[in-house]
Amino acid sequence: TPQGRFPALTGLPADFVFGAATAAYQIEGAHDEDGRGPSIWDTYCREPGRTAGGATGDIACDHYHRYREDIALLRELGVDSYRFSVAWPRVQPTGTGPADPRGLDFYDRLTDELLAAGISPAATLYHWDLPQALEDRGGWRVRETAERFAAYAAVTADRLGDRVHRWITLNEPFCSAFLGYATGRHAPGAREGRGALAAAHHLLVGHGLAVRALRAADPSGAARIGITLNPDRLLPATGSPADRAAARRAETLHNETWFDPLFAGRYPRGEAETWGELAGGGHRRDGDLALIGAPLDFLGINYYRPLTVAEAPHHDPDPAARTATDIRVAELPRDDVRLTTMGWPVDPHALTDLLLDLTARYPELPPLLITENGSAEADTVTGDGRIHDTERVAYLSDHLAALAEAVRAGVDVRGYYVWSLLDNFEWARGYEQRFGIVRVDYATQRRLPKDSYHWYRDLITAHRGHQARPEPTAPSTGE
Ligand code: GBH
């Protein structure tokens, strides 16, 4: 049976969506073409020491010019849906004012090419590329950025909404707020306390305003609108009260900051314990919770690995210098499981636990989509000209099995997108980390599908029950 070769499929509904995901700054390149303005990532990458080897997204995978070839790869892969992101600074080069039609033209062509290939587009409006001009006015620290974001959502939906019916407002606002404004490991590279907490709130307000704008642009009701979060499975290093308290503070920072306003109509209860006098804040207004909590059609979840946490002293003894991630929590390495080249532990069952736990804690959750899951591996081209990325195949297979286990236990998951279609610009880690199921040789821009690409294609075919290709006669090799 098809499921015999792909046990991970057992229990997934017949209309389960299989997809692949990318993001604009990580693949497009063409950073100064057709009127695109600079984003905070263009600025950040040019500052010394920010990214591995000083890498930038100036060229990346040159997808802006090669999107037809990349969509042909998606068509051959057989995915139902493709998740991409729209670059705000292509649509509005300074983040405000009338749209530059040339930027929207690109996403218009991309959308038509996807539909012609029988692939359903899923568009993320914000995958971290804030127009630099808005950062110069305060970025996500200020409410004005949330209002600008909704205006950008409206012009984008106005142009694409007749054909794009799945919208994701924000990708991983945790990263935008806390890596961008507290650890400084993401653009704009700030290290702040209150600024980062204000950014977290204004991202949520921007989401709520964008949902309102997207619904207004969709009188027919065809649009399915959601947000993508990266909830973490947080494991206390020991059962000690100190480590358990540390894990609770991390729950507030990583999960409750987002889930509580979005799905429980409240701000997190652990704020004071987590942030002390930084908590609360004058950036909140009456009515914000109702705006943020507007009903969604789905919740996107990006999942990669669990985190083991323990109590730690403050990084900075000076309270005035503390950032919003300085919450007396240390992340501990794991030595009991395999690590990917990101150093991330491979522990698929943590995904099952996470999904069950979130569903139990938030009864109002909408249906789920896994909008990213994948692994970075040290792929090498072998003598046969192929890439036998058996670790990635095992990672994907085991995580799909863990997801299917959650579905069998009653969690409503409607789809799964592999991160990523292509090797790409992995933010601060530059081009050293390869997440693609297709290799990109950056010197030539040649694409080479890895074994994981062929495995995923066969899994999708098996799920559809088409049996379009004969089963292999040799025993499968750990797939
Ligand atoms: C997701 O981020 C993103 O949505 C996607 O763009 C990204 O490519 C993918 O996952 C893989 O990372 O080591 O200090 O440079 C997940 C959150 C953000 C966590 C980047 C790791 C690197 C921090 N990731 N972060 S650092």
TrEMBL record:
> Where in the sequence is the active site?
E172, E372
The record's comment on protein family reads: Belongs to the glycosyl hydrolase 1 family.
- Please give one Gene Ontology molecular function term for this protein: beta-glucosidase activity
Q: What catalytic activity does the UniProt entry give for this protein?
A: Hydrolysis of terminal, non-reducing beta-D-glucosyl residues with release of beta-D-glucose
**Could you tell me the Gene Ontology terms of the biological process aspect for this record?**
cellulose catabolic process
Q: Where is there biased composition of kind Polar residues?
A: 474-479
Entry protein name = Beta-glucosidase
* EC numbers on record: 3.2.1.21
* GO terms for cellular component: cytosol
**Keywords of this protein's UniProt record, alphabetized?**
Carbohydrate metabolism, Cellulose degradation, Glycosidase, Hydrolase, Polysaccharide degradation
Query: Which superkingdom is the protein from?
Result: Bacteria
* Entry keyword Hydrolase: yes
EC top class, as a word:
hydrolase
- PANTHER family named among the record's database cross-references: GLYCOSYL HYDROLASE, LP05116P
Q: Where does substrate bind?
A: Q26, H127, N171, Y304, W419, E426, W427
Q: Where is this region: Disordered?
A: 464-479
Q: Keyword check for Hydrolase, yes or no.
A: yes
Question: InterPro entries recorded for this chain?
Answer: GH (IPR017853), GH_1_N_CS (IPR033132), Glyco_hydro_1 (IPR001360), Glyco_hydro_1_beta-glucosidase (IPR017736)
